Each structure stands twice: as C-alpha cells, then as structure tokens.
Amino acid sequence: MCLGAYELGRLLSRAPGGAGSLLIRGGLVVTMNPRREIMSADIYVEDGRIAEIPSRHTAADLVIDATGQLVLPGLIQTHVHLCQTLFRGSADDLDVVEWLRQRIWPLEQVHDFTSVYDSARLGIVELLRGGTTTALTIETVRHTEAVFMALAETGLRAVTGKAMMDRLEVATEMIGETTEESLRESLALAKEYHQSSGGRLGYAFCPRGPRNCTEELWDSVIAAAMELGTIVHTHAAENFLQSQRLKTDGGTDIRYLHGLGATAGRLVVAHAVWVDEEEIALLADSGTAVAHCPSANMKLASGFAPVPEMRDRGVIVGLGADGAPCNNTLDAFHEMRMAALIHKPRLGAQVMSAQEVLEMATIDGARSLGLELEIGSLEAGKRADIILLNREGSHLWPQSNVDPIVQVVYQHRASDVSTVLVDGRVLLADGELTELDADEIHARAEESARRVFARVAASGALR
Amino acid sequence: MCLGAYELGRLLSRAPGGAGSLLIRGGLVVTMNPRREIMSADIYVEDGRIAEIPSRHTAADLVIDATGQLVLPGLIQTHVHLCQTLFRGSADDLDVVEWLRQRIWPLEQVHDFTSVYDSARLGIVELLRGGTTTALTIETVRHTEAVFMALAETGLRAVTGKAMMDRLEVATEMIGETTEESLRESLALAKEYHQSSGGRLGYAFCPRGPRNCTEELWDSVIAAAMELGTIVHTHAAENFLQSQRLKTDGGTDIRYLHGLGATAGRLVVAHAVWVDEEEIALLADSGTAVAHCPSANMKLASGFAPVPEMRDRGVIVGLGADGAPCNNTLDAFHEMRMAALIHKPRLGAQVMSAQEVLEMATIDGARSLGLELEIGSLEAGKRADIILLNREGSHLWPQSNVDPIVQVVYQHRASDVSTVLVDGRVLLADGELTELDADEIHARAEESARRVFARVAASGALR
Predict the structure, then answer these.
(1) Please, are residues B300 and B239 in contact by the beta-carbon 8 Å criterion?
(2) Which domain holds residue B269?
(3) How does pLDDT run across A111-159, given as a tens digit for each residue?
(4) What is the pTM of this model?
(5) With an 8 Å Cβ cutoff, are B92 and A298 in contact?
(6) Which residues of chain B are within 8 Å of residue A441 when distances are taken between CB atoms?
(7) Residues A165, A222 within the same domain
(8) What is the pLDDT of residues B186-207, one digit of tens each?
(9) Which of A90, A347, A394 to mutate to test binding with chain B, by most B CBs within 10 Å of its CB?
(10) Is the ipTM of this complex over 0.90?
(11) Chain A contact present for B228, CB below 8 A
C-alpha cells in the first residue's frame, strides 16, 4: 500500500512504536554510520527498528516516498529545558546571572502542573517539527511528571529529570527544596519513568549546577545514578564570574565535580565554556560528555566554549538549544550553523567542518546519552529515528557536486523537515504533525503563559 | 475586491510598479518610523507608494488580509554577490585569501552571460522568498548586464555594479582587466542602468578592494561617482593578514581609502573587521556606511567586526549575507540573528538589542544607500516595499507580552515570510512567487552550475 505521507502518518501512528513494516524509498541517505556513507538507498523498517539499509525490499505495509529528499538520523539535542518554553521572548538582553535571578527563578517558581505540561508540549512540537527526535532535558524543581506525561503522549525520545536545588541562597531560595525532598522526588520519578514508554523515555538526575546543591545531595545522586544506570546531567563552567566565584569554593566547576566523583559515572555537563586544558583532559579521560549550546552561550554573554580543543582531546560533545528564553528557539539547525561558524575566527576556517558538526548533532549526541547502539545513525538494528529533508527551497541550489552534509549544516533550516519518525512511528509527514494539533498546543501554551505571567506579576518577583 | 493573496499577487503583478490601490488589512505593523511605533493598523498603498498608515480606508482595488501576521518594511542587505550564487556549497572551510585564490577567482573567470544571469536569478528568488526587498551588490568583472537583466525582470530593488580589478597579481590576473576597460565598461553600465526600472535599480561603482585597483582607477571612480551621484561599494579591512599587508603599502584599508578621497562621496565598505578607533572615527565622520556580514566573517575566519563600537561612534551599519559560497545562504534572518548574538560574549548581553539589529536590516540599510527617504520604514510617502510574516509556527509562541521585534530577530526564519511587495508590486503571496517559476530558475541554475564547473575543471584552475 502506498499512501500520501500524511495519510500514511495518520495510519501508522495508530500503532505506537511503529509496529509493522515500512519502506523509505528513493532518498539520498546520509547514514552517519562508522564509514560515514552517503548513498542513494531505500531503508526497510520493521517493528520500529531499521531492518535493512540499503534495502532490496520493494514493498512494505507502508511506503514513504523520499524521492528528491535527504534522509538523516533524527537530530539529538543534549541540553534543553522544556519547562522554560513558555518564557520565550520574555528574558532578553541579560547575562546568565541576572537572567536567572530576574527571570528564570521567579518564573519557574510560579509554574503549575498545567503550565509545565503546556510548556513541554510547545517545546516538543517545535523540536519534532525541526527534526529533533531525541532530547536530554532538565526541568524545574516541581511538576516534572507533567513533562513525562507530555513526552509519553507526543512521541519524542527523551532523557529527562527534575532540577535538584537544595543549596538555598538569596536568589535561589524561592525555588529551592530540602536535600531530602529533592532526593525523594528524584528517586520516585526515576522509578516511575526510567525506561518507560517502551524504552523511549529515560530518567536523568539533574543537580542544577555544582553550586546549586549540597555535597550531601551530590553524593547521594552519584550513588543513585550508578545504581540505576542513569545519566547525571548538570550545568558547569557556563559563566566567567560564576566560575571565578567557585574557585574560592573548592576549585573550578569541572575539578569540583571530578573531586565529588561525578565524572566516574555517565555525566553530561552543559556549556563547559570556561575550562582550562587540565579540565578538558579530565572531561576526556572520564568520558564526560559536554553539551555545547552556542546560541545560548552568546545570548547570555557567557563566551565561546573551546569546542574544537575539546573534540581534539577526545571529549564527546553534543549540541543543545538550551531553553527557549536564552535562544529563542529550540532549533537544531540554528545550533549546527552556529557551532560551525563561531569557532572559525579564533582557530581558522578549517575547524568545525560540517561533517564534525553533524556528528555532534547525531552520533555524538547518542554517545553522550550512552545510546550509540540504539540511535544516532542509520544502520540495521538501530531504532528507526529518521528525518527527511525537503530540498526544494531556493537556498538549496545548486545541488550537483555539493556535499549534502554541507547543505544540512549551513543551508537547511527547520522548515525543510518534511517527515519525522521516532521508533518507526511517523510523527510528522509532509510537514504536518500526524498526531498532534499544533494550533491547540499553541493556544493552550498561550493561556498558560498568561496565567504564569499574571501570577509572577502579582508576586512582585519579576523585575 | 478581496481575493486570496496568491490570486491577488498574480493580478497585481501584471501592473509593474504596482499601479492602483492596495490595502494591507489587519496586521501588526512594525513601522520602524522615527518613533519606532508598533501598531495594529491597515496600510493603504497607491501607485506603488504608502499613502496612509494607519489607514481609514476600508476598500481598495485589492485587499491583502494580514490578520495574525507581522507587517514590516522589506529587509535591506547592503553586501551581496549575486553572481556567486551558483558556487554555493563549493568553497567551504577556507579562509578568505585561499577562498578567493582557490575558488572564487577561477570560478568567476569562467562565468558566461547565461551562467551569471542564472546565478543572479537564483540569488534573487532566495532573497525575495526570505523577505529581502533591496540589495546592494558587487558582481564579477564581466557580464554585469546579465545581472541587471535578471533584476529588471524579477522585481527586486537593487543597487549593483561590476567588480573593478585593474591591479593584476599572481592570484587575480586570471580575472583582471586594464584600467581603461574597467572604467569604460563601468561608465557604460552606469549610463544604461542607473535609475532604471522606474528608479528601482541603481548603479554603484565597485572597485573590488583597496588593493585590487590602481590609484589611477580609484581616482577616476571617485570622480565619476561624484558626478553621477552614485555609491562606491568596496571591500575593506576584512582579513587580518590582508590588512597587515596593506600597512606596508600606504596605511590600513580605511586610511588608504580616506587618503584617496573615497570617503568624501557616498561610500559603502563591506566588513570593516580590522579597524581601530581612529578608523572608526573616520568612517563615522565621513558618513561612510559599513556592511556587516557576520556569517561570512565567521565562515572565512575573518573575525568579529566591532559593530557595537562603530554604531556607538555613529557609523551607519547595514547587514549583508555576502555571497552564497561564504555563508551559505542569502538569508537576512540568519544575519540578524547572528548580528544580535555574536557580539554579546565580548561586550555583554545588553549590546546589539533586537531593536538595533532590526534598524540595521531596515532603516540603516536604507541610509547606507542614501535611500532613507524612499525605503527602510513604513511611512506615508515611502515606496511600498513591505513584507508580511506568518506567526503560526511553534517557534513563535507564546505571543502575548512578547516584543515582536525580539521575535523577528531571534525567532522568525525566512520560511515565515508569506508576502513581499516591492514598489507595491506583489512578488510573493502566501509564500508563493507570483511571477517567477522557482523550479525553472533552480533547474537552469543547476544546468549553468554544471557547465561552469566543467569548464573550470577543464581549465585546471580549481584546486
């Protein structure tokens, strides 16, 4: 049966996890496999996994026509805050310290279950429509069940956790919690949601930053993460002044985390802007992954992370949009283009080739999450997280003799994403969401945003 | 009569210059007028010019429904090479010196009339679809008539000129010309095309750079530009090594141009990355405009231009994508986002606000071209160069209490552009070109690209 992609999506999406067989026919496939092959090939998917590529199958339960399109592994973002999507456009022109103090803490503090849910759904539809199929996210201190609910319903792959903040200071006390509460709630969430939705959702412990948690909490988190086999996801070395303050307080961020034993497990640190050579070696040797967030690092005036140096030394570096209020999008194409461009003035035009950047957004994102055997490339046996890019736009010509990876990184934009599969489930087809109603999600997000802003205005906390 | 925007476009476009009356109804208008007003207002257009805003007219020959959309002045780019669009994706990971020597000189040298025409048309459709209504461009040494032909046919507003290169060196000799030829051809083009197409097209003399022309040619160009009242458009202070070399050769770029008398007329210099405080003062005091090309400056590893410092000192700074091979798009939204982000790490999160960046892409672009009484804002009496942005995408929510200018600069993308008018002529409606066949333009560009690349391969010049 060969249907139009949209009808196909509606049909397929009735079978969660993409049961049945599916053929993606006629596309130019950027595999990101170990040989980085690019081939005109069909992909045969069975029960949510890639069964054969190139495939000799000529039929399947459903066929997607990818003629004239690029076929890529779904993009992976390793640092996102879904709960912040509602605050987009309401926190501009502030450095990270003021941005947190004047906007993010007061706003996160007045979130309710519904507003977190609506915020997550808005972020998720933006991610899916822009070709991101997997996100590692940190949510706020409360209501993280709402995010898991949104994730379970929508089909995005994610590793998520609640922010942990038990070290109360002037700025953070409004959103903080006790050590015991923080740990209890995190463990309950991990128990409920780790490896849920058929393995599509995972839990990550998220101490918000080295300075936002007590050592006692860090110790417990590290032990729990080891025991449960989960990621620990935190912020580190984002801002120059922050990183200087920590120097008087037990060493720089990375050394401090290493001293705690956090680097012994599977650790993902967002930013790593202010790291020296020794810290880069620590990150590399411990297998700690860095989430590079170029737009957010610039918008919050944090700086330029030494990504080429980190990659050269063997650090696993993924890409992330961070939260909507410091970006202001959740667009992996923006982050790829930024990552490719911003390091060249300092180190030369050869650094951060398109190939390297696409590795960060795919297979290195997967490695960051310990999911490199499951996602991050198009290979037989892997989960069918696949995106198709339309190549019709004027910004994509000429096409002969042009490296499609150069096109993906420098030229393509989120609006070129035509089709998105997660676990073989068609979530976007011909540019249309198959299961979700974007208009309804936008309207509910708007309503929740109004409620949250009214509440924060009444509280007087927003300056 | 109220038609769907697409039918309307087809209808209106039959009257070049947008004869008749037109009402843009129900949009949120970002005027960029001197008070920077943003208003829910209708715009009444008559014979290609804005007649009334806000307008009390309720009818017109044609009505465009802008409900739910942002209405903005058409975006202006002050540094573009239309003739290079065919080379997109074929010149990556090179600094500007090698990029010119290994790619651009050999490729421009083998251009023929048709390939220049096809390259320009490809660039023009990308610009129009992305909301750019005016471009200041430098073309190659030969076949600039082909660019004017493409511009005349397509409806983009442009100030264009042939590159002048009479100082032959090892790298540039393949593309160079004699002083006399250069001047003769430039004058002939100026005579033919300056103020043509009802004033929509203008001529600019384009000595390619301080070092690409003899002083004799510079002297003649400056005199001719003064006499004809045209712009002089050149590159300056782009690359550190280039700028150092010039130090042994008559001062830095800006001082050299000033010494020649070039700053006495209407001068636009692209890049100005390597300028010191004294040169910034020279630029400001002489009314010289700078075209800031953030993506190109990063991709070619040129550096970060001191744009906030230049603007503080009163330099007029516009924005440009430069050529497709060093970007790789001609997307004003990319350049706005880049300009807003890249200067913050050095100078703080407050610099380059969205408001300032949109000024660069609109009214300051107009001032760069001496066209600030004609374009660059939505005010009665100005030409009806107007764009509409769709606000439906997930990346544009929430919308209440969000500054639409923040949305334009940080969130909107080229694909949100729904409608484009130049001189009141509807060139894009509901995202579709009304007069041009994009598929045909892409196919012809592809054909010309193949021919040019075959020719350059045969010549052995491309490494």
Answers:
(1) yes
(2) 75-368
(3) 999 999 999 999 999 999 999 999 999 999 999 999 999 999 999 999 9
(4) 0.96
(5) no
(6) 394
(7) yes
(8) 999 999 999 999 999 999 999 9
(9) A394
(10) yes
(11) no
